[in-house]
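Friendly challenge for the regulars: who can give me the structure tokens for this chain first? No prize, just bragging rights.
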Amino acid sequence: MSAPRAAGEAVDNPRRPTLTQVAELAGVSLKTASRALNDEPNVAEATGARVRQAADLLGYRLNGIARELRRGATSALVGLVSGDLANPFYSAVASGIERELRQHGLQLVTANTDEDAELERALVEAFLERRVRALLVVPSGDRHEYLAIEGNRGVPFVFLDRPPDGLEADAVLIDNAGGARAAGEHLLSHGHRRIALVADLARMAPQRGRLDGFVQAMDAAGNDQWRPYLRTDVHDVHRAEETVRELLTRDPPPTALFTTNNRLTTGALRALRGHPAAPALIGFDDFDLADVIGTTVVAHDPVAMGREAARLAHRRISGFGGPAQTVIIPTEVVARGSGERAPA
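First reply, four minutes later:
Bragging rights claimed.
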């Protein structure tokens, strides 16, 4: 017999209690223990109480998901495959999804792809193996035909922020082109022509939309002075800071900046800190404290995006079989000072 452990001593490789242990402690068969914990009929009240007490003492909990799957049912879970929940934008989207799903007795589970298309596919397959009721996807990959078979088996898909490619499915998108066009027009209206465009991964549909909208504004105004200041595939805060610092060393430097997401705007603000003649700045996506520090943004409502995606998913779960629908979340330029600076 092994020596008893001292109080507070760590336990090596602790294991979850099993149903067999519950049955042994309660002095019943494994089948009776299972029936008691699953509230099945023909179990004496005293026996059921003894089994539940044993389960509580051992810390045993039923695996509700596994139980439902064994019965051939789907779970109450809805999966979200997201780009990066560390980004406040995706966190807000997830918040909107969760609040809406909760009203329908559904629960949200999330996973990050880190913009990796292969990981996205693996995560989607993992969620489908667990028979989620619906799957919400912020796609990283370029093609999604592989999802068509699963969709035909009754698993509804809703795409967020980026449209599906090669698949008919519901989607909730931002008016990327319209918002970027408005940002470009706003800077032009304040006399800017040398406007730097700092964009994230150009392969991503939202970034392409923002690039297209900005170019539309420049072309409509007959302005091509912005082209030497175009920078794409700037994917994080540090790279954005470096990129803006490089732009400011050009001769002549840009008189305005347009950054195409909140992380790039943060990097730009770091680069502009203490600059004696900071260029005008407009960033796509609102962010915390932007109103306090006076940063002009192209704003939209990510919580509303999540809420609309959850509504579309619930509608499909409830039996709607109509054609795929796309909801567009509107944008607006919120002027706070940084985007209204005149050219130096």
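The radius of gyration is 27 Å. Residues 1-14 have pLDDT under 50 and may be disordered. Your move, everyone else.
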